[in-house]
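call fold target=DUF2971 domain-containing protein
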Amino acid sequence: MFKFYTIPDLKTLENIIGEPTLKFSSAFNLNDPFELKFNLVLDPYAEGQENEFFKAHPGGTIKDFKDWQESVENNDGFLWYTEQVQRNYLSKLITLCSFTEINTNNLMWSHYTNNHRGICVEYSDALFDKLKNIKEFLVFGNVEYSELPPEVDSLEDRSSKIKKMLFNKQVEWKYEREHRVILQSDNDTDFISIEPNDIKAVYIGSKATEDITNKAMEICQYNNFDCFYGISLGKTYEVQFKKHKEGTFHMRTFWSELKE
């Protein structure tokens, strides 16, 4: 699995691959405004609704339940409001970290590494087994992509609801081939320390500065990571890579405009 990073400074680089950590974020801090979007299906007269109502309102009466049914049926805004309450509730219970199956996609290098100026890190399979064993771990899985938000029935089981709400995105994002690790957390951000041997390789963007390139290479040599240079030249639009070899120079991108 791979993860792309923007590298604003050398300290950030050190935190990602030197003494490595993974950053887990609230869903509402991500770049898709439709995170956790779903369409609630709520039939107030379905079998099981009465039982669920009194679980949520143990002091309620039959009249209260009938009033609730009527409110659901006659208030067009009720479903929308309930969706937002559940979406907000879930967002405050979890943080997540995203990974991808590929590291050659030009769009992802452009969007997530500040236009090829950052890095991409390849993580070992063993890392994900380790993450499953931490106390806060909730679920790990691949994202599915669809034209419409998933339908979530109010009576379906909790794990099914979570799967639909956390692992579905608009089909336009399909190129990302995203996988997510979800933690149970009420923090806005969590940083999880990992071991250097959880990293297999580092890929340096074709437009990374000399400082970033040299520091990444230094850390890779110290931690015994494979190090690759991103190459955005050639006969295709796909980003290519050349493994670092001492004393070898690679032309990595189009040259800058010459200044007189």
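return ok
Residues 2-35+92-243 form one domain. The helical segments are 10-18, 49-56, 62-74, 77-91, 106-112, 125-131, 158-166, 210-223.
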